Amino acid sequence: MTKYITIVILFICTSIAFGQEKEQLEITKNHVSIDPFLLTFGTLQFQYEYQIGKNMSVGGSLGYKFSSGIFKVQGIQSPTLNTENIDFTGVKIMPEFRWYLNNEQGINGFYIGSYYRFFSYGTNISGTYVNNETSTNLIDLDVAINSHAIGFEAGYKIMLFKKKAFYLDFLIAGPGVSFNKVKFTENLEVADGFYSTLGQELSKYSILESLDINDINIDKNKGFNITLPAFRYGIKIGYCF
What we know:
Elements: H1 2-19, E1 30-34, E2 43-51, E3 56-65, E4 81-83, E5 89-100, E6 109-131, E7 135-159, E8 166-173, E9 176-186, H2 194-202, H3 206-210, E10 223-230, E11 234-240
Antiparallel strand pairs: 1-2, 1-11, 2-3, 3-5, 4-6, 5-6, 6-7, 7-8, 7-9, 8-11, 9-10
């Protein structure tokens, strides 16, 4: 499916690019955009981009995650630990640099670049924990995740109308690496052995299991650090002036 979507995007890019060859676009240095598809993931995000050279720009995005959207994070369901679904909220900040590969002045067409991404998300975990298969204990934890990521990006920006101010920005790929710190704060005191069980269950989540990550060791400060791959992709609708 991804293969066919990529082909369609490239076809649209090529068609519009050829249609604009005969008339040069007006140069505009300020570009603002929004990714409407992120709303399905419970995130509202704005981006600002400013041209600093013939084909280069700097910019940044600011996002607020108000829910997990339609893709809920499944809670833990095991013989000893059961939790409700997890719903993260928080903020995201992301500066970036782009270099456009066109022969004309302006920040449009194919581009490559780099980015730094920071987000701080939080949620609550509630449920039950069976200690030594003899007693059932209520759990109530606040979870905070701070993540720092760096990576590269590639995409294509299409100016929709000649001498007009609207565009589409296709971020095709954005591979990187993220460094994440997870911290737990107890609202109710947990039973002995809880954090060991929690670490084992977290390592079973699909993305961690696919990376062959062994049991997560939650330290005495009730947290852990983990390094993971980072990804970026999307389609933005923008306005320039």
